[in-house]
Specification:
Layout lengths: L1 H9 L4 H15 L4 E10 L4 E4 L2 E5 L2 E4 L4 E8 L6 E7 L9 H8 L4 E10 L8 H16 L3 H7 L20 H4 L16
Amino acid sequence: MHRRALAAIAGEGGMPRRSLIFVFALVAAASGCVERRMTVRTDPPNALVVLDGQEIGFSPVSVPFHYNGVRQIKLVKDGYETQVINQRIAPKWYTTPGLDFVAEVLIPWRIRDERDYMYSLPPKVMVPQDQLIERAREVRQAALNPPPKALERAKLDANGDPLEPAPQIARKPSRQEREPVPPRTADAGEETVR
């Protein structure tokens, strides 16, 4: 009897081996995994969301993510300041090396990692036209009268002329300048076209 029980456990009887394979397949099919999803919400809603350089939709929007770390989120909406946020996604306990295998393969249920991020977009500040024109005049005036340090670096005098004359670059004479070509004359057998 003892020998028969050992044979059944070892799989020599046929039926226990099939049962063992069935149990293994059932455990493998029921094994868990980690689902990661991030949701971006904005106030006001319907802002274009660009995640790591890829447009993903208008807020509120949810997308799966596969890794933690810093993700760049860009939010764009007419009438509001464009925001660029470097959002850090902190790792959870089940991403620790060693535990990640257990969480992804051996735990028989799903682990859901849902991240929800909310951002407020400030209204765009419209600069009055008078201030914009005045600022343009200031910039133009600054360009016409550069500071003395900038002139020194550019090796220019106060009038914008070079401090030193530009060096003359020796030019190689062309082939025609070296060997003048004599004018062509008509041979006895050729006709000249006039």
